[in-house]
Write a structure and sequence with these properties.
- It contains 19 helices and 18 strands.
- Helix 1 packs across helix 19, helix 11 packs across helix 14 (369-378) and helix 12 (319-329) crosses helix 17 (437-451).
- The chain is globular, with a radius of gyration of 23 Å.
- A nine-stranded mixed β-sheet has the order 3-4-5-2-1-6-7-11-12, with helices on both faces. It has a six-stranded parallel β-sheet with strand order 15-14-13-16-17-18, with helices on both faces. Strands 8-10-9 form a three-stranded antiparallel β-sheet.
- With 490 residues, it is of the alpha/beta class.
């Protein structure tokens, strides 16, 4: 039987590990690229050369001669730097210091950068010009979220930008539909969008320019990061105003669940945690719990369950619900440690609540990768009451670490956490449906009741640690999708 030919996949994303990270997008892109390469394919990964990457990798070689990109009124010179983060993956980092050498990726804690539309249009232009300069003709171009959604538009409607890449099949993956890249219509000319596309059936959105909508309209296929989310976003409740577009394009829309990089997230080998452990020997987890309790100022107590949360602090992640429920949560026999950053309102609110409830709630503002691993290993339960959740990664990390998730029944949380049935001993966590204080408290109390029954808690942990959300099966589904796009073009 003839083996399928390997593919060359060009991937463009605004962040990816190991170069820059603000959230789960970076984990997903970096891990997917590496897994595709392990399956025998060749990946060209384009990311901006942010200050964060420059600090980590200050001396990278050029991949080609500098590129001069024409914009209205001036040319912009960019460089492509080469790095190989994994066998079979070539990263091409787009360097343009005015655009990307900044303290943050997308903006300060108070506001987005005013020129984000131009920054990421420049990045998209550099992807196409770089591929042409390197004489690369990928089989498919895979783009992620609004920051790279101009690429499918350029491939279809700007042959002067696309050059030899015109006709290359494209896939856009929506990691979070709430972030759409909305900008004034006056940006059309600078971004290189033909004015004839600015209408309600094109890139116009309530009088503004919507860059994610460009990707949804002009990519050859659309994917989301979980099957349930691909269904939810076609409804007014979760569609963020684009549900009509997504219903029209339902024939090319699918959901592929994100995977977990078990080389990075595995309690048997995790270098960030003070004691390693296995499903058959959880003694190390008890030591990890003591470690986290001391880090957050709690007196170690194996009899009191420790809940953990690692999150962007925003309404999407359920922080309005957590704030409303907190007076009743802190009255329950539990402790809760929170690591996160995001909306300044929630940062200040939860820091103040922690000062008012010492011994019950402890908060660290910011993001700390080693501490995130320690919380996953040390917590007994993981609290994730999202208003909506495209996929979520921490609930899958928690399962592998024997940390029982307490989640809401939305998006990828439904696809990854099975409700516990004590009569049958099946399930991996606690799931509530209604987005209200009563639903959240019900799930927390169910978790506390199970914690008080050691046999049930041991079964829950064992069930969760036996789950497998590795990237291989998800990457194979992407390969099937890529091949279908290649066949469609042929």
């Amino acid at each position: 039987m003839r083996r399928p030919f390997p593919l060359t996949i060009a991937m463009a994303a605004s962040e990816a590990l190991p170069y820059a990270k603000s959230g789960g997008l970076a984990d997903v892109v970096g891990a997917l690229a590496a897994q595709l390469a392990r399956l025998g394919h060749r990946v060209l990964l384009f990311v901006p050369y942010y200050r964060e990457a420059r600090v980590r990798l200050p001396h990278l070689p050029r991949a080609c001669a500098p590129l001069d990109l024409p914009f209205p009124g001036h040319d912009v010179r960019v460089e492509l730097l080469r790095h190989e983060p994994a066998p079979g993956v070539t990263a091409l980092l787009v360097r343009q210091d005015d655009a990307f050498d900044r303290p943050h990726l997308y903006g300060t804690p108070d506001a987005d950068y005013w020129d984000n539309a131009g920054r990421f249009a420049l990045f998209c232009r550099a992807v196409l010009a770089g591929l042409a300069a390197l004489r690369e003709r990928p089989d498919v171009l895979h783009v992620h979220d609004w920051q790279t959604s101009l690429l499918p538009l350029y491939l279809r409607h700007r042959p002067d930008y696309a050059g030899p890449l015109a006709g290359t099949p494209s896939l856009v993956t929506v990691h979070n539909l709430a972030y759409q890249g909305l900008f004034p219509a006056s940006a059309l000319g600078y971004l290189g969008i033909p004015p004839g596309l600015f209408h309600m059936h094109g890139v116009e959105f309530h009088g503004r320019l919507n860059l994610l909508k460009a990707g949804l309209l002009y990519a050859d296929a659309i994917s989301t990061v979980s099957p349930r989310y691909s269904e939810e976003i076609r409804t007014p409740q979760f569609g963020e105003g684009l549900d009509g577009v997504l219903r029209e394009r339902a024939g090319v829309l699918c959901g592929i669940l994100n995977g977990v990089d078990y080389e990075a997230w595995n309690p048997e080998s995790d270098a960030h945690i003070p004691a390693r452990y296995t499903p058959g020997d959880l003694a190390g987890k008890a030591r990890c719990k003591e470690d986290v309790e001391r880090l957050f100022g709690f007196e170690p107590d194996p009899r009191t369950p420790l809940f953990g949360t690692i999150s962007r602090m925003a309404d999407q992640k359920g922080f309005d619900l957590l704030a409303a429920a907190l007076p009743q949560l802190v009255a329950l026999p539990l402790r809760w440690c929170l690591l996160g950053s995001g909306d300044r309102h929630y940062q200040d609110l939860f820091a103040g609540l922690a000062r008012r409830h010492p011994g019950r709630l402890a908060v660290r503002i910011g993001y700390d990768e080693p501490l995130a691993h320690r919380i996953e290993a040390g917590a007994d339960a993981y609290l994730m009451p999202s208003r909506f959740e495209p996929c979520g990664l921490n609930q899958m990390y928690s399962l592998r670490y024997g940390t029982v998730p307490v989640v809401r029944a939305v998006g990828g949380l439904v696809d990854t956490v099975r409700p516990y049935d004590p009569a049958r001993g099946t399930g991996t966590g606690f799931v509530f449906r209604d987005y209200d204080v009563g639903g959240l408290l019900w799930a927390v109390r169910e978790a506390l009741a199970a914690f008080a029954r050691p046999a049930d808690w041991a079964r829950l942990r064992a069930n969760g640690m036996a789950e497998d959300f590795s990237w291989e099966s998800s990457a194979r589904r992407y390969v099937e999708l890529y091949r279908s796009l290649c066949a469609r073009r042929a």
